[in-house]
Amino acid sequence: MKIESDYLFVRKFLYFSMVLLFSIERSFACAPHTPQDVFIARFQSATEKQLNTPNTVVDLSAEKFIFRSGLDAFRYSKPKQWHSSFAIQHIPKEQIIIGLAYTPDGNNADEYQIVSFAKLNCENDRVSISKPIAPFLAWNKETSNCMHRNNETVGILDGFIEHDQKYYLAKIQKQYPTCKKLREAFPASSVENNDHVRPVFKSMWERLIKWIKFWL
Fold first, then answer.
1. Ranges of each domain in the chain
2. Which superkingdom does the taxonomy of this entry point to (predicted)?
């Protein structure tokens, strides 16, 4: 009887171990996006690359990863180039957008790949987000895995493991309580180019970060 009991115990142990291992592997294989991938910027233009490549070069201004901390400035490189693998149409110049982006190549950490984005609107001091321009890989909380979700039904901030778009939209609203605050935080390119103090400060800050990274 004891041998049979031990045998059943071992079978159950192996079964649950395999289930747990499969769940962990499936979760890590997915690698869903995180809030650190969320940026807000002003859209300027999009130019399709030649040589039969699917990538599009995207020109943005006043870009900022809004959920990154001060320490993240030492972990992530400042974007110098933006690319997308989807066509971009009917987005007016200077439109404020919110999207997801990451660096796919560790050797080119300043080249960011845009996963998808949506228009970030503000009216009567209330921010809102339009539908994403393209489907993207998102975490499905109901099935505990990730998949390319339909951009007609899933918001750009709905694909994280924790919380949904309503939660993150409330954080954005708190950070930019009025439309004026939002526009000032992400100024149009004409306004940004006429601001002489801010570029100097940004340049000094970027040099300081590079110096600290060099000695770390």
1. 33-136+171-215
2. Bacteria
Tokens 């493991």, residue located: 161
Relative to beta strand 126-129, strand 136-140 is: unpaired
DSSP 8-class letter at 114: E
Amino acid making up residue 77: S
pTM above 0.90, yes or no: no
What CA–CA distance (Å, rounded) separates 122 from 213?
Answer: 37
Residue 46 DSSP one-character state: E
Between the alpha carbon of residue 60 and those of residues 80, 81, 99, the distances in Å are 10, 9, 12
DSSP percent split of the chain into helix, strand, coil, nearest 5:
40, 25, 35
Which tens digits make up the pLDDT trace of 148-192?
A: 766 678 899 999 999 999 999 999 999 999 999 999 999 998 765
Q: Quick count: other Cβ atoms within 10 Å of Cβ 187?
A: 17
